[in-house]
Amino acid sequence: MASYLKVKSGWRALVARQGVRRSRTFPNKTLAQRWAAEEERKIFEGEATQDDASRMSVAELLEKYRQEDSGNWSETKSNMVRRTAELFGDMRVDELTLASIKKVVTTTELYSASTCRVVLQTLAGALRHARIGWGMIVPSEAVKDAQKALEKTGHLSKPEERDRRITPEEEAALVEHWVSNLVPSDVVAFLIDTPIRSGEMCALTRDDIEGGIITIRDRKDPTKRHRIDRVPLVGRSAEIMERRLRGDTLRPFPFSQARVYDAIQSAAAAAGLDDLHVHDLRHEGISRLFAAGWQVPHVALITGHKRWETLKRYTHVTAEEVLAKVRSPS
Questions:
Q1: How many angstroms separate the CA atoms of 257 and 34, rounded?
Q2: pLDDT value of residue 94
Q3: 0.70 cut: is pTM over it?
Q4: Looking at the DSSP assignment, which residues form a beta bridge with residue 229?
Q5: What is 168-326's CATH topology?
Q6: Topology at the third CATH level for domain 52-153
Q7: Alpha carbons 284 and 268: distance in angstroms, whole number
Q8: 3-state DSSP helix/strand/coil percent for the chain, to nearest 5?
Q9: Domain-by-domain residue ranges, the chain?
Q10: Does the pLDDT of residue 239 top 70, yes or no?
């Protein structure tokens, strides 16, 4: 017998008979009941067969997931979905078992243990979406069991927390050894002084800047779609923004996040700073704000973090900075 659930957009009907499981949402319960009755008739008369997990590959599931749910994805999540497809794409969804998942993760040479950890989280999220949104029967428990087993053997691990700081001399060296003709070197100072994500910087348009405040649209937030934040420009960022908006340009930073990554990594390599990562600029900027005496809510307004537990991972204030602040007359 079909079941019905009241949801925000109307009524969701769920049909589950003879191994076939399907769901669909309708604006009212009457339409949901009519559809469910027709689906049950098809199943009973043999016109419908299980056509979800038994036939769909992981790559197909991830592509459908992307088409339906990618409106608020960050570039990082898009990359993780791509990596998940690289590892598991050729498998059918119903072939995802504890043994098969462990075999893929323990034999791959593509990704580190920390990346594989996020890959399995991404896979679990896609399966959850398929189960709730499409009514598919999916092997969610197999993924959970694999996560626990692989964590115990060390094949999944949290990324090591970096405490790399960027000195003023290293910042100057990055600019001095800048090689990109597409991305200007002033993105270094901009991302340190106003430590937003580089993708957020690249997405800004002229309409998003007013009176020293930028509006960040579709900000990364796992709990809210299309989040909008207003963020003040700090330090050198205000002057850089004013300079970038001269003329009739629509976007002050008209290039992709990937271009920014490439430009910074190329400059770091040319300057001999092989251990410097692009994300270290954001770490450095956040640490400088705290060292300057900024309070947590004010820093979080800039960075977009909602929880102190997450924000503190980016904070690497030194004892010398605290001592200088204590001794400061102000």
A1: 48
A2: 84
A3: no
A4: 216
A5: hpI Integrase; Chain A (1.10.443)
A6: DNA polymerase; domain 1 (1.10.150)
A7: 15
A8: 55, 10, 35
A9: 2-46, 52-153, 168-326
A10: yes
